[in-house]
Amino acid sequence: MTYRRWIALLSLVSGLVALYLALWKAGFMGRIVCGGAANGCEYVQGSRYGWFLGVDVAIWGTLLYALIVVVASVGTLPKHEDARWPTTLLLALVGTGVAFTAYLKFAEFVILKGFCPWCAVNAVVIVLDLGLVLLDRRRLARLAAPPAATPAPVA
């Protein structure tokens, strides 16, 4: 399986987790299934850090992961499998996700002193995505490198 396929698969799973959190927050899922900690999912999701620009952060996450899935999937098509643009775009999307996740994890752990296991799934996936994008970038750099010179035959 290629790096881009792994990115698409992991991001699909994480996007579904984000969608679950968004649907829960919108009142469509009943009680949230979360380890039962006092400062757990409900506490973290209900805090002011559960919103960004007036939109639920889980919706932002769902949209980001959907974009990542689409770009990574298109990047696996034969005509794009060695193209640089999918990896460049994935690096921008995933980099944004890593930065935003770092901000949210800081707020969750340091400011709120809470822990949301569902949020942790998303944090792990976005970091894995970053590693996979960097590996794909390295793969493309190797493809672009000129072949090593062969030594001249000795007469």
List the helices and strands and how they pair.
Elements: H1 3-25, H2 41-45, E1 51-52, E2 55-56, H3 57-74, H4 85-111, H5 117-144
Helix pairs in contact: 1-3, 1-5, 3-4, 4-5
Mean pLDDT figure: 91
The CATH class turns out to be Mainly Alpha
Tally of contiguous helical segments:
5
What would CATH call the architecture?
Up-down Bundle
At the fold tier of CATH, the topology name is de novo design (two linked rop proteins)
Number of strands: 2
CATH homologous superfamily (4th level) name: VKOR domain
Dominant shape: elongated
Radius of gyration: 20 Å
Query: Taking strands numbered 1, 2, ... along the chain, how are they ordered across the largest sheet?
Result: 1-2
Structural class: mainly alpha
Describe the biggest sheet? 2 strands, antiparallel
User: In the residues, how many domains can be counted?
Assistant: 1
